[in-house]
Amino acid sequence: MGYESNTGLGVVNHYGERGTEDGIAAGGELAGGEGAVKEAVLFAKASDFTIDDATNASFVSRFSLPAGAVPIDCIFEVGTAFTQTGGTTSTTLNVGTSGSEATNGFTITDAATSLSAVTEVDAAGDGTWAGVTPVNASADTVVGVQLTLGAGTVTSIDGGEAKIVIRYRKV
User: Fold this and answer.
1) Architecture in CATH of 35-170
2) Non-local CB neighbours of 61 within 8 Å, separated by 6+ positions
3) Helix or strand or coil: residue 37?
4) Structural domain boundaries in the chain
């Protein structure tokens, strides 16, 4: 319950709940969030990536899609260009389920040039991220980011910073 404070100086303040402002316009959320489009924003730096083997570099984010989430699309927005040493032919950027990003997530091929620009990453999605059914109806899904090289050997990824936006619906 709110209350009013009148200091006698012609200033009136109201403290406490403001039930009349609840709702989306005031920054609230839909009850339960079902059906609402939500955005998850992940920040990636070159130093976050670990070189897994000769052709892969990846990192596991601290974000998990909630159980019942249906991914819509993904945008990879580069703030500072990444420099990839070794094997820059046909690089693929994957954002998806940690450990299986290439088959369950969003993908863009030839990302070597895209690591310096804003890129929409495969709006259709792959595998369980195809946008028709929830990724996992009963458990949260940890999100990972992976770079896979078509040829050559990656030796380092330097200097880059990016924002990754994943839009999804909660069913």
Assistant:
1) Sandwich (2.60)
2) 42, 44, 98, 142, 143, 144, 145
3) strand
4) 35-170
